[in-house]
Amino acid sequence: MDKTEKKYKLSIIVPVYNEENNIEPLISRLKNILDDLSCNYEIIFSMDPSTDLTEKMILEQRMEDERIKLLKLSRRFGQPAATIAGIHYCTGDACVVIDADLQDPPELIKEMIQKWQEGYDVVYAQRISRKGETLIKRIVSYVGYWVINKISVVKIPRNTGDFRLISREVINELKRFNEHDPFLRGIVAYVGFSQFAIPYDRDARLEGKGKYNRFLGSLRIGLNGVLGFSRYPLHLISLLGLLISSISFLLGLTYLSLKLLDYHIVWGNPTLVMLISFLSGVQLLSLGIIGQYMARIFDEIKGRPGYIIKESIGLSKEKE
Ligand code: UDP
Ligand code: MG
């Protein structure tokens, strides 16, 4: 396939959950762009079963245009799983993952295609500003990225979401990952190939409410970024152990010297209470960190599928 010829096929992947009023505006803005590109395309809605009219809106749009397709998950598996499902089932020479709420401007797709044609395999959009987000959410996100990039084995670009173009080569590699809690930004960084960033201003959501906590955002997803791509928290426990043991050894030496010098000190309750509570805190924290990794091993070892498709409309029943 020659990417520069206009025969290539693009798959747009939209994870979606309760977005009834955003479906039509999204499709019409996407179509403006895609028709300009005059390529073949499909728009795949990968849907967590929604309690509003999302499904009906998508199917109505499909009546008019068969290139609109729907993957229905059997229950709410969440945005990361829905996105991965879309990537597994898409048939394009490249795919673009985009949110349903028009926070990611579809107009950027043109630039992404251009970079892909120049030879890049991953073209991700990088937020320079974020509208409609609370200050606390921005701080959580800032700190999250800082921690992830300090300790993770691959560099995960700051201020990116899932909004990105991914080439068929990378899609095929992504299919080899079978992680229970996929962190798309992380696994795409892990896969490597040539990657390019396009800066953009992130709009506020068009309609409806965000599906995550207004302050903490998708903290759980961020935690996957930390725990799924770094062993550092486990090393930290060993370091803490070493540090505290050294302190207690020095404390022992001090007591011994004082005893030998015949110097009597009586330290009372507060010291003991402080020491015991401090050490119990550190121990529980360390157990918690180990627990987090164990929980992930637990989830992986059962080998359960990360998502289940109840119905695929317009797409093959099997992964491409
Ligand atoms: N989404 C989803 N399943 C969920 C939560 C969200 O498919 O359990 C979709 C949602 O419909 C939207 C995208 O994921 O298309 C991003 O969600 P949202 O706008 O709430 O998140 P944010 O903009 O804060 O990243
Ligand atoms: Mg949003």
Question: Can you characterise this structure?
Answer:
The protein is α/β, with parallel strands linked by helices. The protein folds into two domains: 9-214 and 305-313, Spore Coat Polysaccharide Biosynthesis Protein SpsA, Chain A, CATH 3.90.550; 232-302. The protein is built from ten helices and eight strands. Strands 7-5-6-4-1-2-3-8 form an eight-stranded mixed beta sheet, with helices on both faces. Helix 9 (232-260) packs antiparallel against helix 10. The site of magnesium ion (MG) has 5 residues, from loops.
Task: Write a brief caption for the model.
The chain has 320 residues and is α/β, with parallel strands linked by helices. Helix content is 48%, strand content 18%. The longest helix has 33 residues, at 269-301.
